[in-house]
Amino acid sequence: MTISEEINKLKKEKDAVILAHYYVPPEVQAIADYISDSFYLSKVATNLTEKTIVFCGVSFMGESAKILNPEKTVLMPDSTADCPMAHMADVETIEKMRREYDDLAVVCYINSTASLKEHSDVCVTSANAVKIVKELPNQNIFFIPDRNLAHYVAASVPEKHFVYNNGFCPTHERIDTEDVVHVKSLHPDAQIVAHGECREEILQMADYVGSTSGIISYVTESDCREFIVCTEEGVGYKLTQNNPDKKFYYPDRLPVCPNMKKNTLEKVLHVLKTGENEVHVDNTLRENSKKPLERMLSLAAES
Ligand code: 13P
Ligand code: SF4
Predict the structure, then answer these.
(1) Ligand 2 center to 87 CA (angstroms)
(2) Which of 65, 158, 170, 231 has its CA 20 to 30 Å from the CA of residue 150?
(3) What does the alpha-carbon distance between residue 29 and residue 265 come to, in Å, rounded to a whole number?
(4) Which of 64, 146, 203, 211 to mutate to test the pocket of ligand 1 (most atoms within 8 A of CB)?
């Protein structure tokens, strides 16, 4: 039996479902029941019937799935797969900003720890941040942790006042302007598509800015035949699957998230067999951090 066959067999025996983010290795995406961006995966996690969720992604994703589904067992293939940006904000600064600004909404990118969510008013993902910030009644927005996505959202919602935090994604921050300009010089007809976590200079050059799913949909629907992809290279699996005739180029220093790549087939099989790496969130923290997540799901659903 191959490892994928073994995983499928155990999945049925254990009443488990596998969720995977677009950045995990292709062979892991290939065995997943649901592959998508962080917004879709958090939504899907609330509608599953299986008892166990194996979350192939990073800690904040497994943690969000557990917060939204306390009765389910959530397993992470590698418990050290963590997003460094999720820790790049602090409660003291949130409290300081609340004292400084009236009418402040603390908007927490889903790439954050449960303790940061607990002190926030609403969560967002890159797929819904602009829509949700527009709909908030507040005039002052403290956007944590990501400064790059914050600047992008601020430019799209000029009527609101933004306070910035200094967090960033190391993988997207590394994408270098000169590198992208160089790839564009080699492929002048290619469009640049970028994730909202890229630096401002990259976003200004981009023909499309969005979440991972947004990028995949844009490319799939576009008449253009070539794209320079400014996000983690794992999206390449779905991009090529959906668009076998289109060409994809990446910055020379390939954007790779080392944490997402910790998800392997062997580790998926191991947690299915052993039940190891279960995600636990303490009750009070879970109740408090669920509120901004649920508010996101409800605001994003409004048309
Ligand atoms: P998405 O919300 O687009 O899935 O992005 C998550 C992420 O970790 C990007 O680095
Ligand atoms: Fe975090 Fe960046 Fe990795 Fe996404 S790509 S999980 S933001 S480190």
Answers:
(1) 11
(2) 65
(3) 10
(4) 211
Ligand 2 close to Cβ of residue 271 (< 6 A): no
Q: How many residues does the chain have?
A: 303
148 Cβ inside 6 Å of ligand 1? no
77 CB contacts (<8 Å, ≥6 apart)? 28, 54, 56, 262, 263, 264, 267, 268, 270, 271, 277
Q: What are the pLDDT digits (tens) for 158-217?
A: 999 999 999 999 999 999 999 999 999 999 999 999 999 999 999 999 999 999 999 999
What mean pLDDT value characterizes the chain?
97
Measuring CA to CA, which residue among 287, 288, 265 is closest to residue 120? 288
Residue 195 contacts by C-beta under 8 Å, 6 or more apart in sequence?
126, 172, 209, 210, 211, 212, 215, 230, 231, 232
167 in Cβ contact with 89 (< 8 Å): yes
Whole-structure pTM over 0.90, yes or no?
Answer: yes
Ligand sitting nearest the alpha carbon of 196: 1
User: What are 135-150's pLDDT values in tens digits?
Assistant: 999 999 999 999 999 9
Q: What is the DSSP string of 58-80?
A: -HHHHHHHHHH-TTSEEE-S-TT
pLDDT value of position 302: 77
Residue with tokens 């073994």: 6
Question: How many other C-beta atoms can be found within 10 angstroms of the C-beta atom of residue 92?
Answer: 9
- How far, in Å, CA of 195 to CA of 212, rounded? 7
CA dihedral angle for residue 94, residue 108, residue 299, residue 48, rounded to 10 degrees = -130
End-to-end alpha carbon distance in the chain? 47
